[in-house]
Amino acid sequence: MDVRYFCCPACPCGPGVFRSTEGFIVRVRSVPPGARTVDWATVVGSVAAVCTTGAFVPQVVRVWRLKSAGHLSLPTFVLFSFGVAVWLAYGVLIDSLPVILANAATLGLSLALVFFKVRYDRGERSGQHELGGA
User: Fold this and answer.
1) In this structure, are residues 117 and 72 in contact, taking their beta carbons and an 8 Å threshold?
2) What is the CATH number of domain 40-125?
3) Is the pLDDT assigned to residue 8 strictly greater than 80?
4) Does 92 score more than 50 pLDDT?
C-alpha cells in the first residue's frame, strides 16, 4: 500500500504538520545536521529513577543506625525485591541502561533492608538488641 504525506496548511497546529493518505497526523521536526537533541523520555525516566531509588537511602540508614527493623514488613520487602529483580531482568532484555542502573541500585537497597530485617529481628528476639550481638 502506497502511503503519501501531504502538507496540511490549513491546520491550526502550524508548519511541519502533515496528514498521510491513511489519515494519520504526523509532526515533523527539522533538526540541523550535527545538532544534539534531548531525549526527554530518558531524562524523565532518569529523574524518576533517581527519586524512587534515592527514597530508600534514608530508610536503610535509619534501620542501620537504630539496629532495628521491627517496623518493616518482611513479606513486603521480599516481594518488592523480587519485583525489582524482574524489572532489572527486563532492563537487561531491552538493553536500557537507565532501567538497569536504577533497578540494580534499588535491588541492592531493598535486599539490604531484607538483610537488616532478618538480622535485627533475630537479635531482638534473643535479647541482644542495642548491644551489638547478633
Assistant:
1) yes
2) 1.20.1280.290
3) no
4) yes
What nine digits make up the cell of 125? 528476639
Query: Crossing angle for the helix pair 56-66 and 97-125, nearest 10 degrees?
Result: 20
Q: What is the pLDDT of residue 63?
A: 93
Mean per-residue pLDDT for 74-103? 94
For the chain, give every domain's residue range: 1-30, 40-125
Strand order of the β-sheet with 5-7 is 5-7, 17-20, 25-27
Cβ-based neighbour number of residue 49 at 10 Å? 17
- The pLDDT of residue 127 is 60
Distances (CA, A) of 27 to 24, 44, 87, 123: 10, 21, 33, 62
Spatial CB neighbours of 122, under 8 Å, sequence gap ≥ 6: 134
